[in-house]
Write a structure and sequence with these properties.
two-stranded antiparallel sheet, mainly alpha
């Protein structure tokens, strides 16, 4: 039986966004400081698990109708494609490319293919973690 804990539910809604935006910060900071796709993915998963604890699995599925198996597959394709692309360019596997671009609002910014690889890792970590949590949560 699920209790209706209003304080936990109200707090979870606010803390979810704090954790989620911090995970995005950690994701982007991972190129120059510790962090990246793996840690950002774990933080995002923990934010979603907080919602599952505060509400229930069915409610969270209505709020976030995401198929985490597809998310995992998409992340795996992005990560492998990013790592394998240099082979077709005559370079070693996992060679990353970067360049500097003058972006509006951001100014001179360096963009890396490592960010694409980290995006793939992020999606895989969130997808696998949430698939495990959902599988455990469905057992009654």
């Amino acid at each position: 039986m699920k209790t209706n804990d209003l304080i936990l539910q109200f707090t979870a809604k606010i803390v979810f966004f704090i954790i989620f935006f911090f995970s995005i910060h950690i994701f982007f900071a991972g190129h120059y400081t510790p962090g990246g796709g793996f840690v950002g993915g774990l933080l995002t998963s923990s934010a979603i698990v907080l919602l599952v604890i505060a509400f229930d699995l069915k409610t969270v599925r209505k709020i976030l109708p995401i198929n985490y198996m597809y998310m995992t597959a998409t992340g795996l394709i992005i990560a492998v494609a990013t790592a394998a692309y240099p082979i077709f360019d005559g370079k070693p596997f996992f060679t990353h490319y970067f360049d500097y671009f003058d972006l509006p609002l951001f100014g001179k910014t360096s963009l890396h293919t490592a960010a694409l690889f980290d995006l793939g890792v992020f999606l895989v970590v969130v997808g696998v973690t949430m698939t495990i949590i959902q599988t455990i949560g469905e057992d009654e």
